[in-house]
Write the structure tokens for this entry.
Amino acid sequence: MTNAANTNREDNRRRLQGIVTSAKALKTITVRVERRVQHPKYGKTYTVSTKFMAHDEKGMAHVGDLVEISEVRPISTKKRWRYVKTITPAV
């Protein structure tokens, strides 16, 4: 497989931004991703949050960090995301 095919596959993967809520497990972080949704009937906008388990090989992310995660092949039962980078570190 050529290098160009690898980069093309990486480009097609979803990337999300969220806040780290837990970094207690070894090489695993929990990321809360929030999105704004409009109610179909009433039109009110509200926030929906989803938690994702992400693989953090080097343990770079800490609780409160705004991070970017990328979709990958299944790593374990719950982990289908990988930590990419920290956008804003926690204060």
User: Anything to note?
Assistant: The beta strands are 15-22, 28-38, 45-55, 66-71, 79-88. The chain is about 10% helix and 50% strand. Residues 15-88 form a domain with the OB fold (Dihydrolipoamide Acetyltransferase, E2P) fold (CATH 2.40.50.140). The two ends are 43 Å apart (CA to CA).
